[in-house]
Design goal:
Blueprint: H1 3-27, H2 32-60, H3 70-81
Helix pairs in contact: 1-2
Length: about 80
């Protein structure tokens, strides 16, 4: 078995164990409400964190500088058309 296949098998088993553990915590545990609250908080905080990251990137990235000579080509095209 190659390294990639071993990693894929490990990820598959880990994911399945996680699903079973999460299902048990939600349906058969005394902590089901806490698990749901933590899960909801992590999901909402993750989405809002991505929004904050996009907003920060947009606010702090400088505007691109215009290319030199771009306006001159537009003027020469207008002169030829007339």
């Amino acid at each position: 078995m190659s390294k990639d296949q071993s990693l894929g098998a490990l990820l598959t088993v880990t994911g399945l164990v996680g699903i079973v553990l999460y299902g048990w915590l939600i349906f058969f545990s005394a902590w089901s409400l806490l698990v749901l609250e933590v899960t909801g908080f992590v999901v909402v905080a993750g989405v809002l964190g991505i929004i904050v990251w996009i907003g920060y990137t947009l606010a702090t990235t400088p505007s691109p500088t215009p290319l030199n000579g771009l306006g001159k080509e537009d003027e020469s095209v207008e002169a030829v058309e007339e």
